[in-house]
Specification:
Layout: H1 10-29, H2 72-84, E1 94-95, H3 104-115, E2 118-121, E3 127-129, E4 131-132, H4 133-146, E5 160-162, H5 163-174, E6 181-184, H6 199-205, H7 213-226, H8 228-235
Parallel strand pairs: 1-4, 2-6
Antiparallel strand pairs: 3-5
Length: about 240
């Protein structure tokens, strides 16, 4: 258990590295036949300079790249731990109903519903690939059912949006304007673009995203509007 300060890399290292090691040890001790580690595209680092390099080739599961953020080194180490035990980790950046409201899509959706201003970095050029939670779950299930031991696979959607594009789509879906957005300074070491190639997952697992972004966003918006009592108490924490 982490007993140091709540800021810095300590909690990430303990949770991602030591926590994963304990899970692996427990799986070995209890004879678990298949261990699936679900991680994030962050472990592969940036694949370009955000909106500037949108056309750059997406990353693959071959190599773990350099990264400046405080979470990536710990997550990369847990990936190596899992690979050493012949595990696998689909990677994603997802959204959908029930997502904790601190995350970007639900945070923007809930703030557009009257809980304050949404925050976007000043230039809004950071790019992420957004996959709906149902497609994420299909990717995890396909890896469990058909994946090969020791292989990394990807649950992505080939839906790259800059933060500004994402914000604009959410504002339109909510019927809100840009006056709802507060521009803030970028955080230190924020990678500009994450993008992954799903061709291996498609070929080996038959995985393919089914939920388009606009369809998934409308579903998400509808769910949060119908469940204010669930997220309002969390926003107030």
């Amino acid at each position: 258990m982490w007993t140091g300060p709540s800021t810095g890399r300590g909690p990430f290292a303990v949770t991602n590295v030591l926590g994963t090691q304990r899970m692996l040890d427990a799986a070995l001790r209890h004879g678990v036949r298949r261990f699936l580690q679900v991680s994030t595209d962050e472990v592969y680092g940036s694949t370009g300079r955000g909106g500037v390099d949108r056309g750059a080739a997406p990353g693959t599961e071959v190599a773990l790249r350099g990264h400046q953020g405080r979470r990536r080194p710990a997550r990369a180490r847990l990936a190596h731990h899992v690979r050493a035990r012949r595990g696998r980790h689909p990677l994603l950046n997802n959204f959908g109903p029930y997502q904790y409201p601190e995350k970007m899509v639900p945070r923007f959706v809930t703030t557009c519903s009257g809980t304050g201003a949404s925050r976007c970095t000043a230039d809004g050029s950071h790019v992420r690939d957004w996959v709906h939670v149902d497609d994420h779950c299909r990717g995890v299930a396909s890896a469990l059912e058909r994946g090969r031991a020791g292989r990394s696979t990807t649950s992505a959607a080939a839906c790259e949006l800059s933060n500004r594009e994402l914000t604009g789509r959410i504002l339109r879906a909510c019927g809100a304007g840009w006056e709802m957005v507060e521009n803030v300074a970028d955080r230190r070491g924020h990678d500009r673009r994450y993008a992954l190639d799903i061709s291996k997952s498609t070929a080996e697992l038959g995985y393919a995203p089914r939920v388009g972004f606009d369809e998934g966003l409308l579903q998400t918006l509808t769910w949060y509007r119908a469940n204010r009592s669930w997220w309002e108490r969390l926003v107030g924490d």
